[in-house]
Each structure stands twice: as structure tokens, then as C-alpha cells.
Amino acid sequence: MDTGLSSFVKKLPLITLPIHNIQEISRDTFIISFERTKEFLPGQVVALTLNESIPPRLYSICSSPDEFSITLLFSVKEGGILTPQLASLQKGDTVRVSGPFGAFLGDENPAWWIASGTGVAPYRSMMRSGLGVNKMLIHGGRTADSFYFHNEFLTAFGDNYVRCCSQEKGEGLYDGRLTQWLRNQSSLPAGNMYYLCGSAEMVVEVRDILISKGVGIEMIMSEIYF
To answer: What span, in angstroms and rounded, lies between the C-alpha atoms of 196 and 222?
Structure first.
């Protein structure tokens, strides 16, 4: 997390909330839910921590604004401070959470949603909010079990859901990185917005690919996961 953003996050007011649910949905990847105390827009984030000794981290909301709970998706980071402790929590334990904020917002216009890893989280919120029409979802992951919420996305998008798997082969999976899939496209839809969510490396590489294929920088929105 860059210095400016880190300073901003540390100043956010936090409240203590009990966990409604925590579930491991894939190897070392979890969803965690707690009460929705404020309204939010699909694509926004919250800052979360356990106590004052651990700096808050930002997580995209992956539930819809109509649901009673806010749900977040996270993977355990090897050597991390926060995520290993989050993974050990149980229902009824508490977390410290900020109010929702952020400008990575979906709308009803045609768009491609591009994600790596847990960067797919905001697109689930957008989809569950009715914003999945006229959308294409391209998701990159290393292994076959890293395509989180794939059953929901398959039902919603069908052939407009592309899973790019870099380290394993499997039925319905593109054999390669999502950047390779994008490079192999002969053309990209003109007038579409392109949303990018994931690691800084992915976002920078995909942005350069899109621009090289004629997409204007003003048509690209990005959310970087640290």
C-alpha cells in the first residue's frame, strides 16, 4: 500500500462488528461476513482490521447492497500479519471496519470486467446488483480452484465468462494467463468501458495491452490490490 493511501486508511473511523459467517471457499481463500451498517455502491471497498496494533487493509465488497450482511473475499498472505489471523476467526468474533467508500463503480453500460485472483470480488457485487447485462468477465488465476464464485458467474454470463488458468489445465479453462488471452484477441469492442481489478502488475500490463489495441485511456478504470 503506498504511503499516501496508507495514511488515509489509518485515519478512517472504524467500528467493531461481530462476524456473521466465515467460510473457506478454496485453498487459503475465505469469505467473511458482518452486519451492513451503511449503504454502499457496487464496487466500493471497506477498510478492515482486528485491533489498533494491525494497520487496516482495504477489501472490495462482494455482496450486493440489498443484502443484510457485507461480505468480503480474502486470501491468506504468506508471512502476512492480518490475513492469517482473519482466517482463524470464528462466528461471533469481532473485526474493526470502516464505512464503504471508493469510485470503482459499475453501471449499466457495456463493459469488460477483467480481474486476477481475489480481484473478482467487486464484479460479484456488481453482478448481484443487476449490473451484469452487456458485460464480459475475464478472470485470471493460477489454479483451477482459484476461480471464486465460478458457478454464479457461469450462470450469469455463460460464454461471456472466460477463466484463464496459468498453471493447470481443465475443462472450460483457457490454458494461459489472461494477458495472453487479451493479446490473442484480434479486436476489442469499441465504446466499451474496461474495468481492471487485481495486482499492480496485472493492471499495468493489461492497460498497456488495451491501449495497444486502440482502447482510449479514458475508457479504462482500475482498482489495484496490494
So the answer is: 5
- Beta-bridge partners for 161: 137
- Is residue 105 in a domain? no
pLDDT in tens, 91-148: 999 999 999 999 999 999 999 999 999 999 999 999 999 999 999 999 999 999 999 9
Side chain identity, residue 198: G
Domain of residue 188: give its range: 111-225
| Cell output for 121 | 470480488
CATH number of domain containing 57: 2.40.30.10
| 106 within a domain of the structure (yes/no) | no
Q: Is 80 helix (H, G, I), strand (E, B) or coil?
A: coil
User: Taking 70 as the threshold, does the pLDDT of residue 3 lie above it?
Assistant: no
Integer Cα distance of 23 and 25 in angstroms: 6
Cell of 220: 479504462
Same domain, 133 and 66: no
Helix residue ranges, H only, the chain = 3-10, 82-87, 121-128, 150-157, 178-183, 200-212
Eight-class DSSP state of 101: B
Distance CA 111, CA 126 (A): 12
Dist. CA 87–CA 76, nearest whole Å: 7
Q: Which of 7, 71, 8 is nearest to 40 (CA)?
A: 71
15-73 tens-digit pLDDT: 999 999 999 999 999 999 999 999 999 999 999 999 999 999 999 999 999 999 999 99
